[in-house]
Amino acid sequence: MAQPNGWLQLAPPVLTLGLLIGVAAVFGNPTPTRSQAKRTVRLAYFPNLTHAPAVVGVARGLFQRALPAGVGVDPKVFNAGPEEMEALLAGEVDLGYVGPSPAINTYVKSGGKGVRILAGACSGGAALVARPTSGVSRIEDLAGKRVAIPQLGGTQDVSLRHFLARAGLRSLDKGGNVEILPIKNPDILALLRRGELDAAWVPEPWAARLIAETGARLVLDERDLWPQRRFTTTVLVARTAFLEREPELVRAILRAHLDGVNWLVRHPAEGRGVVNAELKRLTGKALPDEVLADAWKRLDFTADPNRPSVEAFVRAAAAAGYLPSTTPNIAAMFAAPPMDDVRAMRGTP
Q1: What is the rounded distance in angstroms from the CA atom of residue 68 to the CA atom of residue 271?
Q2: Which terminus of the chain is less hemmed in, N or C, by CB atoms within 10 Å?
């Protein structure tokens, strides 16, 4: 397969021993202490398919069962990464599922002190779709168009700006002619249906919903723009202060996360059913079977954070103006879990 245009050549995603040693000591004895009695772990995620490990972890009680007696889990649902990371920096969230770009922005904004990546959660699961009469059939056709993303500074926003630049285009705010509009996913659907948007770069299940409910066309599956068709869409992160103060609780959540990822990989049909039931509970609407099946085929669940992919997002976010012009070093952003948890990560695709 020819090398995709856009991102720099990346090595296949692997976890190395160098990553494992870094902060393994942080994850101490999982025995609960008195200070943990009646504690609550505040866990953030989105009602998206790309956050399915979180969705099934909450639905199947994996997180609650993994925590010591007397410690509860408080699920917090967000629409997009930047607002979730603002809550994390404010101390309102302890751990969360989020795209790499908001996590990177938070790490840099906090001087490298605010957040750590614990594991991957999802690879793929984002796409560019367009209104049939928009005339958009490739990225180059976005010139002069109105394109929606879930939120400024989010992972889809950074991807869109990067690939626009590769196509010789720029957004209006950078002196170009592509209007990039931050709009919540449900509102993107309504606006596209009314013809007030030309295209949208969104995560699943929104790409599949836009196709099914508005007649939008799939312009590109973002995986096709990446080496080996793999790029990090969602990671599990921890607020650094919480990680250092409550390592045993973080370890418990990480184990539940790994259980959720492995269960999704081994039980895809049942996984779709559980996720769909939760989406109905959270959003008031389940996905039609055909929409869910269409979206699911663009997803790959894995606990590997794919560090080269995250580093590519750093370069793209810097080029988009979301980071300092000097590309920051994010090596310390990756927290190394214990060896037994890493072996579990390697057991996933």
Answers
A1: 26
A2: N
Beta bridge partners of 100: none
- Give the DSSP per-residue string, 252-280: HHHHHHHHHHHHHHH-HHHHHHHHHHHHH
Three-class DSSP category at 168: coil
Q: What tokens appear for 223 in the block? A: 């995986």
Residue 5 lies in a domain: no
Task: Judge if 165 and 304 occupy the same domain.
Answer: no
Of the given ranges (95-104, 145-154, 324-333), which has the lowest mean pLDDT?
Answer: 324-333
- Taking only the tens place, the pLDDT of each residue in 96-109 is 999 998 899 899 98
The residue with tokens 């039609």 is 288
Handedness of CA 304, 50, 204, 163 (dihedral sign): negative
CA 43 – CA 304 distance, rounded (Å): 20
Alpha carbons 276 and 205: distance in angstroms, whole number: 10
Residue 318 domain flag:
yes
Structure-token match 């720099």, residue found: 8
How far is residue 341 from each of residues 43, 49, 57, 150, 344, measured CA to CA in Å? Answer: 19, 24, 17, 33, 5
Is 341 a residue whose pLDDT tops 70? no
* Residue 336 banded pLDDT, cuts 50, 70, 90: low
pLDDT at residue 24 above 80? Answer: no
Task: Summarize pLDDT for 57-92 with one digit per residue, the tens.
Answer: 999 999 999 999 999 999 999 987 889 999 999 999
* Closest C-alpha to 105, from 265, 330, 256: 330
Claim to verify: residue 150 and residue 184 sit in the same structural domain: yes
Domain count, the chain: 2
Global pTM?
0.79
Domain residues for the domain of 218 are 126-228
CA distances from 141 to 167, 217, 277 (A): 9, 14, 37
